[in-house]
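[Structure tokenization] protein backbone as discrete codes
[Encoding] learned vocabulary of local backbone shapes
[Protein] chain in single-letter code, fold in tokens
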Amino acid sequence: MADNSSPFKNQSGTIGLPTQTMQNQIHELAKTLPPPRRQNIACDACRARKVKCNQLPGQDKHCLTKNYPCTHFVQQATSEKKRSSAVNRRPRALSTSNPTAAPVTTPTKYSTSPPADTPSPGSSPSPLAPHYLPYANNHAIAFPYQLPHLRSSPHASTIQLLSYLFSPESPTDPASFPHSRGRSPKISDWGEIGKRLEDDAFRVELALDLVEVFFQICHTRLPLLNPAQFRSRLKYSLASHSSPPSPQRTPPEKPVHPALLATVIAWGAKFSEHPLLVMDREGAGGQSRLARTLVNRAREVAEAEKVHRISCVDHVVIALLIEPLQNQSPDDPDGFHGFWLTCSIRHLLELQINHKSVMQNIQDAEARGTMIFAWWMACLADAYHSAYYRRKPQLDDDDYDIDFYTADPTPPEMSDHSVTPSPREQLEGYYRAAHALARTARHMSRQLWRPTTESDGISFEVLCNIMALLNDWRDEHLPRVGVPSDFESEWDFVSAVSACASDATYHVMWTILFNAVDDFGIREINELHRIGPNPNHPIDTHNIETVKHKLYDEALHGSLRIAGLTGVLTSNGYLKLDPAVMHFSCLTAGTLLARLGRPEVSNCIAGLKQYSYAYEEAADEAKEMERAYGAALSGESEINCMQSVVIPAQPAQPMSLDAGGGGFVQNGNGSSHSSTVDHEMASIPQDSSYSHLMYRR
């Protein structure tokens, strides 16, 4: 008979250990076992992109879905190195007749010495050299350029960086040509362009030219850099120093951050009229393959330099410059839409730039000015980005207490408003207006982009509140920062685009609100259709329809105004030089006009086609807009919840701006006319500012 009184017998009668005792013994046993061996299963492409090389059930691996070659050269080289090391550690008899071959080594990003066949720091590596390709090749994996702690001199690292930026794409580069995937790049892929880029002197000359294009065109809209300081640092980075400076000499200049230089060069390539870029566009149907490559390389360098991980002033500026540089479509799989904006905001908060006390303690006026502008650029971009792409904003109204809109407070003698406002006061007025609109955009995003709003609809009270906020902003700020009725003769490219951008940013908010109501509906009306009338809570459907009519009128007026401004900027060639400031407004307004079958959509289509000179996705957006317009003309309505208030398109008639620049003059029956503001912007110079901004041969 079994003895069940023993503490070492369980209920089944078999002998075992108590639970706690068993866990203790297993824990002690685990301490004596060797650690598990980590399996390196990631392929070369996934390893370079730092993603898991997993295969989900019913799907291809990550690399295969991206059309990247699934090679394992790094894993093979690592295994070979371990095997060779194990052989070297085995005891063997000394012999001089059969020397052992040197083990195979693979350079990595953590290497303390370059591979044996890496060119010396002072030499000029070929752009096609395997060790300077960014990803996998038939020999080994090497980082595209040396990390900061491995660089022997600023000159060597800058020359090496330019060699990487201007080399043909690798098979795993997102900018590769389709016919070059799966094989190493060849010089014939770029034809005459590749041959010109083989020369070190030509690469330096091209880089300097693209930097100047950035400062002539992009810097006027994104003034995050000091041009003189950047040029001085770049000159120092390109200068060759054979010997280190003596202690008596002045400390050397700080070299340009590699990711910053790569980003500035990529910006310049978007708008440059350099003969090499012109030849590149002519050979690729109007799209620059080199410019597309430089954008991808700038992101790769920024990731290699850990711009997204380490908080410092340079990384804030780099992140803010990369965000508008890349593809503006949120559906682009390689764009990481909003990623770099998020990084810049995180860095700014980490540096506590959102605190007034910290900002006031920055002694260097240059650094203080840069950080203040960077903060407001990130703050405004976050608010508008949330409204544009239906996301919650990262910043809240109480996340900062900065009330300065410039680097230093305005002196008392400059605060007299009886005279003409100074440029500084005008700048402060612009930022105050933009900040007020950004706060309204934040409120819109928090109220509209909710799962409950998407499922139940927008509360009528919330809708009325948002419309009131937009009307208040128009009355207070639009006459000062929008497009006036009569232009001054001295207006140039920057003045025209700035005023048009401020004007369009306000008016596109009405279109965004219209689209939200059209997609989600109004909650009270949705409940009425879903559960029927409620005697305890009657719904004033007449008042709701009146508000919907007002929203439709404002959205249509705003879209027509944006179309008119877009038409004038396009006729002057300004959108060809615009770093995507008007892009979203043009796209959103044009899409609504296309859905309504309005002929004024042609201005937005022409503007997007001009935008495609620098942003390739704009060409596809123009084709989709043409399709929507054709569908609307054929009777296929794409209007949903706002269908009850949409007025059929009327024949186009002249329209003029009102005196305040905040609305449009309508005809007697309440329908709006088509927007034509060309005569009001005719005084903008046609060539005085445009010609000198383009590349001079």
Notes: The longest helix spans residues 541-571. The chain has a mean pLDDT of 74. DSSP finds 26 helices and no strands in the chain. Residues 44-85 form one domain.
